Amino acid sequence: MIQSFWPKFRRAVKAATPDAHIVGEIWDDASPWLQGDQFDAVMNYRFQKALIAYFGAEDIDTCAFARTLRDLFLAYPEPATAVMLNLLGSHDTARPMTVVRRRDRGHALESLKLMVAMQFTYAGAPCIYYGDEIGLEGDKDPDCRRCYPWGWELTGGRKGTEVGAAGLLQEAHRRAQGQPRAPPGCVPPAGGGPRPADLRLRATNPR
Question: What are the φ and ψ backbone dihedral angles of 170, each rounded to 5 degrees?
C-alpha cells in the first residue's frame, strides 16, 4: 500500500477513536512511518532479529548485540520507542523455541528465558505470539502457524512436539506466581495471587 495513504488513515482513525493505537508491520527501518503522522508503533522485527541472533542462533557477539539495541533505541522518536510492539515469535518467522533447540537442545529453555526477560524489560510493549508461552515449536511460515495444542496442561506439558518444554515453562510461571506445584494431570490453580519471587536466569552465551 502506498505510504501516502497512512496519514489519511490516521486522521480518520483518531477522529473516530482518539486513543486508538495504530501498529504497522514494517520489517526494516520504520522511521518514515513513525514521525507522528502515520503509525504509533510497528512490529519490532529489528528487535526480534537481534534477540534471536544473540540468544538463539548465537551468531552475533555481545558488542554487536549492544550496538544493535542502542541504535534501535535511538532510531525512533521517544513516544514511538515507548510503545513499540516487541515480539519474539510471529506468523512469518520461525518459533524461538525451534531456533534455540536447533542450536543447543540441552539449554533451549534457558536461552528462551533470557530472550523473554529481555523482551519484558526493554522499552516498548511485549507481545506474545500464541503458543510461545508454552514453548510451541515451528519453523518458517507456514510451520510457525501450527495449531495450538489444546489440553497440553492436562498432560503436564507432554503433548505433541512440546515435549518437556511446556511443562517446564508452566512450572516456572507457577513458581513466579508463588503457587504450589500442581499434581500431574491437574489443571494448575488460578488463585493465590502473585507474591515476590526469586527468578534466576543462567546465561549460556559466554561472549
Answer: -60, -45
* Own/partner pairs, 57-66, CB within 8 angstroms, 24+ separation: 57/99, 57/103, 58/103, 58/205, 58/207, 61/207, 62/205, 62/207
Q: Is 181 helix (H, G, I), strand (E, B) or coil?
A: coil
Closest CA to 167 of 176, 154, 178: 154
User: Domains of the chain by range and CATH?
Assistant: 22-148 (3.20.20.80), 149-187 (no CATH)
pLDDT score of 164 more than 80: no
In 10 A of CB 136, how many CB atoms? 25
Q: Sorting pLDDT into bands at 50, 70 and 90, what band is 31?
A: very high
Is-contact 95 141, C-beta < 8 A? no
